[in-house]
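INFO  loader      accepted 1 record
INFO  loader      residues=255
INFO  predictor   begin
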Amino acid sequence: MDESQPVRGVTIADGRMTIEGIPAAYVQDPGRPLVLAADALRLVGGFASREGRLEDRRRIEAQARIVDGGLRRAGREGTATRLHLTLRPLQAAADETRLLLVIGWPEEEGGGLAFAEAFVPMVVFEALKADLLAGLADTLSLTASTSLWIREADRERATDRPVDRYLAPDGEAGDTAPARGFIEALEWRPSGPRQRETDEIAAVDAPPAPAPAPLAEAALDEADDETAEELRRINWSLRQLLVLFAFLLIILAIK
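INFO  predictor   done
INFO  writer      dumping tokens
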């Protein structure tokens, strides 16, 4: 499908996005989280002067790949499978209980590299920093629920099959709006001999797996499909409101 034509108009209604001139429709699927796998982690330190005050520029940078698909811009050409990932510590006045994520695509000529920025509590940042300096954080994985879109036709595809995710257009000019979300899991580990030692310790300490529930009990526990879907939509809407509120707190903390 050719999605390279100019974007004329975008309509979002009832959780469904349509773009004038493009036959495909897009939806958001909270049951399909975004998974990133990153390597080449490096610590960057520094400060900057901003409006008469000192700004902390510490961050951890990495190169990440999308595990189960690619990233695209709805109505635009190009697919990204790798992102520039940056992890930043949240300011002290911001929410210290949530891990937030922003995904975007630069609009300058040439497209630039798609990026993801994670904002994590200081305790998480310091733990990752310490393990990175100790050689215990060679790779990193991140799982997040986001406001990215998928094609409506891909919604019924099995969750273990890759799908492309889309950033939505922003306004009549066709610029790309960033997506936001909550990080549900953030893990890092060493590689080589250190990783084998870690795996052996984890295997010894791991509790035995629970016995599977009988099929009859599992069937009784299944909720009605329509009710479950409606509850999922309500929960998804509330989560998106929380994401916006959390980012407003970050902006206020920076100012």
